[in-house]
Batch of 4 targets.
Target 1
Amino acid sequence: MGQTVSVPLWLFAAMLLLALWAALVLLLAPGVRWYFRRRVNRMIGEINSRLSIDLPSFKVTRRQVLIDRLFHDSKVQAAADACCRERQLDRSEVLRLVDRYAREIVPSFNVYVYFRVGYATGRAIARLLYRVRVGFADDPGFAAIEARSTIVFAMNHRSNMDYILVAFLAAEHTALSYAVGEWARVWPLQQLIRAMGAYFVRRNSGDALYRTVLQRYVQMATEGGVCQAMFPEGGLSNDGRLRTPKLGLLDYMVKTFDPQGERDLVFIPVGINYDRVLEDRSLLRKLDPLAPKRGTGYAALKTALFLAKNLLLAASGRWHRFGYACVNFGTPLSMRKHLAARGFDFRALPDVERHARVAELGSALMAGISLVVPVLPVSVVASVIEAAQGLALSELELKSRALALMTRLARSGARIYIPRQDQDYAISVGLRMLTLRRLVLENEGLFVAAAGEQPLLAYYANAIAHLLDAAPAADRAQPGAAANIPP
């Protein structure tokens, strides 16, 4: 009994590894899971007591459960059967495809990551780069929203910063779920995006099976009360103007909406504008069909040089934030009231008529967004410089025209953000931003657009061009009354 037993070193190492594995799985892992589950549940309780809209159970359901629900959904299974017949494929092969699509789409929302890591990171980035402001919010309209409603923020898409900016500003009230394009499906970015509750979408996919899986997930999330954020334009604006809405996700959300159900579906128009869009030159390049294609390496190099330049400016004390980033929240649009006023139900409409009705809804949402796009200093000054058509302006003349333009916008009902409630300061801020970027040059007290920079000035002017189109008829008929600014 007391004899020594010798074993080979490799066998001892294997036994040691098995013992360590058993200790980890049977002793440490349950304790770690219990600890983090306790922290998460405590955070959910804290959040539900703080948010004006509770986190729905669908939002915090385990990802694998949602994948199984989506996989076994009757409409998804019917689409799989149709795919088998059309493509002459084995059912097991098609079901593997369904499982892959479901795992690609369904997020893995993590409360701790969203409200601790994501919120802190988003706030730090947004405030580091911009002076972040909420210019307008329809508080009485928000107060009238039923507590169990499904909220959808419908926003114009100016920059990829939109994701961070709106999520950060809304985090005091709810957790947003975004639809994110395939550009973000890279490690480790996609893991972080999934943990933040976003789901991935293949743009312009012609695969009917994939579209059915995506459609059913969006409908399940909407019916489950998940607060979502969408860009009706479908992508970034390349020229700065608002775009015609794309209706795919909107159609998915409303086609199964039950006006008599327990949840209302409420769309909140959100207008976003920046004094500087980080991707402005890249977006303008897309408008030039003759511009040479640039790969990922070039983009990475330009990004690194941009960061290095700004770090050097910060180290020398000459760095400035990129102006103001402003968000306005417009009047909510209740689907119950919308359908009751028009006397129809999306579920009862044939496809052609439903698509027409969804197009009307999309136009109404874009109209609501257009009304609350913030007017910022750079957009005002850029509009004045562009309207001058190469004419050099003194500072006094430029400010006079900018003030007349702001007056004209105010008459049209535009939401103008005026820093410090000082119009002269606001115009000076916009002019400083443009001169620092050398888009506007000063020579002997006269300001003029820099050669070759007219497209970029037009890009920032276009952000508020639709508001100028809505100017009162008197201003349009007598442009000279507004300091000679063309209509």
Target 2
Amino acid sequence: MPVDPQVQAYLDRVATLNMSPLSSLTPEAARRQVVESLTLFEDEEGEAVARVENRTIPGPAGEIPVRIYTPAGSGPFPLLVFFHGGGWVVCDLDTHDGACRSLANGAGCVVVSVDYRLAPEHKFPAAPEDCYAATKWVAEHAAEIGGDPAHLAVGGDSAGGNLAAVVSQIARDQGGPRLALQALIFPVTDFTAQNASKRENNEGYDLSVEDMAWFSNHYLNSKQDELNPLASPMLAKDLSGLPPALIITAEYDILRDEGEDYGRRLQEAGVPVTISRYAGMIHGFFGMPKTFAKATVAMNEVTQALRAAFERA
């Protein structure tokens, strides 16, 4: 279908702002620009939740900041460990605060949002190491934060979706923790991918192949890292035994095909998977409910999938 009218209005407005391409910026400047642009479009506070706590937890290279969202009601609650997007270079707990609030309320779970180390200050594999350490900590300290470790999921958007997929593989290979669901929202799954969505959606839809090259050059140490399953989970030889997955993609996103291809590979390995493509949408729509009505639809799909997975666990 054509680009959604709300997407076109967004793209038209972005064009008037004369923002610099990410690939022309330093990481520090890119971080500022992302925050400024989000403020322009998503300027309202997120939903109220019963409790929000900022704290730090032990990590492999020092303390990891996390933000814990607790819904109303009496626990113990199911748990979601959430990894924010931003190409492993930009974004933080604040840029994804609204999404985490909605996830906590919608799924009725404690959400632990992880402020993993960013590149280029901390290159691969710092991010997956932090994210797995945080997931283990949540499982081991669930009672401390009002959670039930028997009902634990991971999720994230874009780079965060990549990290959720990677953590799912590490957890399988390391003997735990057991995960009820991996919620992968337009995930990066293969740094080596060459596909139709990269050709069709490279220009005019917010995220370009050049942008992804800028992110990967900051994140990875060398081209050799592209082949590592901890960076490209698609390249893992064995995808069996992984947790059920919900994969959200956007029609006009260069990452569309690698997300859907990963879902099909999971299915071939016997993993229960739902692949849900959002027609007319672009990369990043999920975190912008004030701008795109379909962001709320996608959020509802994720929270319902989490509720169903927690019930099955």
Target 3
Amino acid sequence: MREPAGYRETIEGLEISYPGQLMFTVAEAAKICGCSKDTIRRRVPMQPSIHRINRHELARFLCGRS
């Protein structure tokens, strides 16, 4: 699977802005992405047992948005 354009830069940006944070709540991800929590729940894969989104999935979502 190929990395989306800008993926590595987005990962680095998340690491700089949120050092050491590997998982984000739906509310945190929505704020970072500038969209609703419902959009995040529908479009970003999350860990089902803890309802958290890992940094890599969030970066993929951010890179795929236009």
Target 4
Amino acid sequence: MTLPQLSGSVLIADGGMETTLIFRDGFDLPHFAAFTLLDDERGRAGLRAYYEPYLQVAREHGVGVVLDTPTWRANPDWGALLGYSPEQLDDVNRRAVGLLDELRGSDANVLISGCVGPRGDGYVADELMSADEAERYHSRQIGTFGGSGADLVSAITMTYAEEAIGVARAAAAAGVPVVLSFTVETDGRLPSGQPLREAVEQADAETAGSVAYFMVNCAHPTHFDDVLAGDEPWVKRVRGLRPNASTKSHAELDEAEELDAGDPVDLAARLGELRRRLPALTVVGGCCGTDERHIGEMCRAVLAASG
């Protein structure tokens, strides 16, 4: 399919799934793994209740919406830590797509994104893989998404380029569009230390341009807005932003015991200003600390900035 966000249409994404489910809805997510909720009816009901407000925001504003499956941790290492066999993970990933397909119904404005998370920690670049190793590691999950009807695959909170490149190659082999989303520290660099520009350019060069577009997630706009400046080709490849609500660093957030929901209006205003500078910015959503309030404000701000 042709992704509408590539033709200039503004779409929203959902927000901080795990932080919403833990801090607002009271779920216990071991190792930050939301996919475990698919295993019982209370958990599935909680996931439906999480997604439905984003569908409503999209309808209210007449925009499309990209919903991520709750599978950020549903890869071999994290799955094994949680007691899931490879076959059970396949089943979980299929059921995650199926849940969103039920919620979508016949609404063509809803896109299902198979969410791929990092093999390791989402804040730290350690135990690095080569691109070839990452392709092998992530291929089973991505292939499951491709065979289950996901419209695209999104690799979020990528901390170094090679893992993201491996994901993109696995998605190309599976024949499913892929989005790569890097996280950055307060200096605008990936946790690996690589500048965002270099990571995007490296990924494009080593995947034959197969990546549909790039995003930045799990960082506040104050951490990266000065990096996304100018009219260079790589900046135009960044079509999506899913910021944190908080201005805190990853290290500070890791130690936090309470949710920092930030200022939804200020966050939205920053996204609106970025849209004015970056006409290619067509997907806005949230990460840690954000919920439908933040996304509603972002949608209004970005649509207003779109003229």
